[in-house]
Amino acid sequence: MGLNEQDISILGGGIAGLAVATALAGRGAQVTVLEQADAITEVGAGLQIGPNGFAVMRALGAGEALADCSVRAQGVCLLDGSSGKPVFGLDFQRFAAGQEYYFVHRADLVDVLADAARGAGVDIRLSQQVTDVVLDGPAAQVQMASGEVLTPDVLIGADGLHSKVRVALNGQREPFFTGQVAWRTIVPAIGNEPAVAKVYMGAGRHLVVYPLRGGEMLNIVAVQERDEWAEEGWNFQDDPANLQAVFADFGAEVQALLARVDKVYLWGLFRHPVATKWHQGRVAILGDAAHPTLPFMAQGAVMALEDAWVLADALDKADSVEAGLAAYQARRHERASKVIEAASKNARNYHLPAGPMRFAAHTALRLGSRFAPSLAMKKFDWVYKHDVTKT
Ligand code: FAD
Hints:
Layout: E1 7-11, H1 15-25, E2 30-34, E3 46-49, H2 51-59, H3 63-69, E4 71-72, E5 75-80, E6 86-91, H4 92-95, E7 102-105, H5 106-119, E8 123-125, E9 130-136, E10 139-144, E11 149-150, E12 155-157, H6 164-170, E13 176-188, E14 196-202, E15 205-212, E16 217-225, E17 237-238, H7 240-246, H8 252-258, E18 264-271, E19 279-280, E20 283-285, H9 300-317, H10 321-350, H11 356-371, H12 373-378, H13 381-384
Parallel strand pairs: 1-2, 1-12, 2-8, 5-14, 12-20
Antiparallel strand pairs: 3-7, 4-7, 5-6, 9-10, 10-11, 13-16, 13-18, 14-15, 15-16, 17-18, 19-20
Helix pairs in contact: 1-5, 1-9, 2-9, 9-10
């Protein structure tokens, strides 16, 4: 079919929306992005972009810009939270040579994608809040907060966790609270930080730290299993004292980090079912709108990038929009579901209570890290070596 002059509206100017807009415009489509925020800004938080996400950034022509504002990761190190002793380490330079893994500030990733989208001719419209989406045969009616009703030829929902397009396609399905919360914060770095993601593990808790922006700052994500419910979203602040209290028995390095926290966001971790229907007629969803994930594989934004590439490619190759969107779901559903399942299982691995199970697991990890690090890395090849731009 080709996408020349095809009119496409995208709801949401986050990672999925800007990436798919760039990929579609690069193939000749006339793309408009509707974003509710009045500026393309993002809350302060870091993201890890693995090689499978970087492959998409490169194919979008934004690889160099991303690399310039990120820290290239050199490895990952799991540590015992209370003693601070390493349990497992992987050196990417030795065991994942050539794979590009980055730590990036969310705001920088969104800026890079917005520049790429504008460069490809995308019309990004800010302050455009959508209040409702109603399917109308193969198309959709989009109700704007201004009172206007839009009837785009093709509508792509990249409207995140609380997606209105997902609800229009699938009805409302309530997520369930996993009994885990995540604090997210950024603190200034003190010294020369290694470009390594450190994961401090304890019973029912773990804390991930990695450098951002040339090592000037450190991103912290701290997870706790608990019954007390918390909201799901980017903008719920908490008292730093609560975070400090939960990790009070962790070692000196963690205490020094947490002493520097003056503002922290708390995020309730919910499990959402992967949407059954990602498309109908000329309407589709991608990214968190289709399949929100727990953060334990650091693959949510990366899956959004993979979706974006495949959606544009499938539309470009199909005979009709309807067939293209069906091919997109067929190519993505199984992979996204598998990554999300792996993320859900991962939390348990970090949170073992002290005792024989933790001893056995940590011993196995220590031995693995000494004698078979390349095997440990291979376990994740199916995630990181997958390159959607080459299929
Ligand atoms: P969003 O980024 O949420 O974008 C949706 C956009 O749509 C927003 O701009 C919003 O304003 C707009 N919008 C929504 N509704 C409307 C409306 N009604 N009208 C107009 N506009 C609207 N992923 C990784 O890959 N690596 C990581 O290291 C990582 N760490 C994480 C850590 C934590 C604690 C959490 C919670 C998540 C993490 N993620 C990570 C996941 C990642 O942040 C998400 O998967 C990603 O942001 C999804 O992108 P998206 O574009 O689909 O949604």
